[in-house]
Write a structure and sequence with these properties.
Layout (H helix, E strand, L loop, with lengths): L11 E2 L9 H7 L3 H20 L22 H4 L13 E4 L10 H9 L5 E4 L8 H19 L4 E6 L1 H12 L6 E7 L15 H4 L6 H6 L10 E6 L21 E5 L11 H11 L15
Helix pairs in contact: 4-9, 5-6
Amino acid sequence: MRATGDPGCRPGWHTDELSLGTPRAALRSLVTPVAVAGGLTELAWVGAHALLYPLGTRKEPLRLDPRCRPGEQPPSVRALFAADPLAARIPVLLVHGLIDNRSIFTVMRRGLRRRGFAQVCTWNYSPLLGDVAEGARDLGEHVERICAQTGHDRVHLVGHSLGGLISRHYVQRQGGGRRVESLVTLGTPHGGSVLAHLLPTPMVRQLRPGSALLQELAEPAPDWSTPTTAVYSNLDQLVVPTRLGRCDHPDLRARNVLVRGVGHMSLPFHRGVVDEVAATLAGLRPAAHASLVSAA
C-alpha cells in the first residue's frame, strides 16, 4: 500500500466523465506498476478479511465513549473539527456490502475513532437480503435506534458497495434525509455493474445497469439536501465499468472522488480513503462544482 502523501495515490475529485480512451489504453492501464501493486494489495486484504469475517458475524453493541471529544485530542485531530466541533459527536454508521459483515470496517472504524469521531457503529443486515428497499427500511429502523440511544437526531452514513446503495435508497426514497447529516459511498454501483448479469439472484439482478431499482433511483429528487460523496476506484473489480461507481444524479449534486490503484475490497482499509472519509464527515471538503477540480 502506498503512502497517502504520495501524489500518485492521493484521491482527486471531479464531476466530469472519466475517460479511459481506447480499449487498448484501458488494457495498458491494468498492467501499470500502480495497478499491479493495487491488485496484490487487494489479494492481501481479501485474505485478511476472510480471517476477520467470523468475528464480524456477532452483533456489535453501541459503545459511547464520553472521553473521546475534540478538545481532548491531539492538535491534528482537533483541526478536523475547528469549523464545527459538534461534527465529532454526530454518530457515524458504517454499512457493509453484499454477503459481508461489519468486519470489513475493522480498520476504518478504528481510524475514525482515532481521528476524533466519538460514536462509530456498524450494522449487520442479513446475507440473504433480497431487496434493496427492504434493506433500506431495516436501515431506517436501526438509525432510529441509534438516535434513541445517543440522543442525537442525525447520523453520518458510510456505505461500502451495496451498503451505499441501501443507504442512498433510505435517504432518497424513504425520507431518511431528515436523519442523515451526510452520505459517503465506497465502491457503490450507482449505475450498476455488468458483472451482475452473471448471477440471476433477485438481489444481484437489481444491480444490473438499467434495472427497475436503478431507474427508480434515477428519478428526480428535488427535495434532496444531504451532502453526498461517492468514492470510486479505477481498479474496482466488481463495479464494471468502473465509471458506474460515480453518482451523477443531477439533483444529488454528489462529489465524485476517484481513487487510483485501490481494489474494491481494499477501499475501506486504505489509509487514503479513511483520511478522505474523515475529512468529508468533518465538513472539510468543498461542495461539488460542474467543472473539473484538482485534488487539494
